[in-house]
Design a protein that fits this description.
Chain lengths: 154, 171
């Protein structure tokens, strides 16, 4: 099932990321066609900064019985800016899938300080006449760096 | 290109006095944000043809790696001590498809307008790179008309970059 992990101290040191979220095809349950599914993968309290993000897909997304289902793009952002951290990235093997992605937005967009609570959201988009719950193959991980500044003081 | 892990890369590189790539220690990573370093001295510049660059493969990248920029620090400017007219030796860090992806042209020759330290100035769309197939990180040292890099007899540079391999984090 969809799970958010805090990386270990060693993984943080090696990668620079603090959190990871694993999504598999079994998590895609949206039955309405051409309708996205949003996963709140993290919580950002006031005083949180997010400064980096990336994506890696060990197994491409696919409806194995429907090659015409060729468009499943994801974004990573928040309630204000859905693609603040990862811009639209194609994951469907019947499209032009991208197996590894790193944040391409520049500093002003990518590095964000939260003055109020928000969620960090992974949005999985569908396409015309296709529903995400028909996806039966795929595993995707997203990574981001999130620091709660209040924990560093006092 | 040999990638080494060493608790004292500066000392080892000095001792060997040759170009080397090292992984930074955990403490160095935490302090700097960089993961790898490459040490270049004038002795590594062996190109004998005039106006011809020399390229060093300073790291290998695998599918699933991401690269997040680079920096350089000059300990001693490059120089041909007997030829002040040899006044341009610029460096780039990048890869096969974009040689200046991580570090744009930076002058390091003592007889030019040498730059002591530099950091990636490209936009993230250029300098944040996700490897979807195997590749390399390359340092290019450019020469100039009528001059050959092997005549450089002074200089020491350190190049830093950040490489993260994502697949191990999915296990």
């Amino acid at each position: 099932m969809a799970t958010t992990y805090k990386l270990t101290a060693q993984e943080k040191a090696d990668s620079g990321f603090t959190h990871a979220f694993q999504l598999t095809h079994a998590d895609l349950t949206e039955t309405t066609t051409n309708t996205a599914q949003t996963f709140a993968v993290g919580n950002a309290v006031a005083g949180t900064i997010v400064t980096a993000a990336a994506l890696h897909m060990p197994t491409a997304i696919e409806d194995a019985s429907d090659a015409a289902f060729n468009d499943v793009a994801v974004t990573l952002g928040d309630g204000v800016d859905p693609n603040a951290y990862i811009v639209s990235t194609q994951l469907n093997v019947n499209g032009t899938e991208i197996t590894t992605m790193v944040a391409l937005n520049d500093l002003a967009t990518l590095s964000k300080a939260y003055t109020g609570a928000d969620t960090i959201d992974l949005v999985v988009n569908s396409m015309t006449a296709k529903a995400l719950n028909d996806i039966d193959t795929g595993e995707v991980w997203v990574f981001w760096k999130q620091v709660e500044l209040a924990t560093l003081i006092g | 290109m040999g990638e080494q892990s060493c608790s004292s890369p500066l000392f080892l590189a000095f001792y060997l006095n040759m170009a080397k790539t090292f992984k930074l220690t955990a403490q160095e990573k935490a302090d700097s944000g960089f993961t790898h370093v490459f040490h270049l001295t004038h002795e590594d510049l062996t190109e004998t043809s005039v106006n011809t660059a020399q390229t060093f493969v300073i790291d290998n990248t695998l599918a699933g790696d991401i690269l997040l920029g680079a920096a350089h620090f000059t300990v001693t400017d490059l120089e041909d001590a007997s030829d002040a007219a040899f006044n341009s030796s610029s460096i780039l860090i990048g890869d096969n498809s974009l040689p200046n992806r991580y570090l744009t042209s930076t002058q390091v020759n003592a007889n030019g307008s040498s730059i002591k330290a530099s950091v990636t100035s490209n936009t993230y769309a250029t300098s944040n790179f996700a490897a979807t197939s195997d590749g390399q990180v390359e340092l290019t040292v450019n020469s100039m008309a009528a001059k050959a890099l092997n005549n450089i007899d002074t200089g020491e540079l350190w190049l830093f970059w950040t490489k993260v391999s994502l697949p191990p984090l999915t296990k």
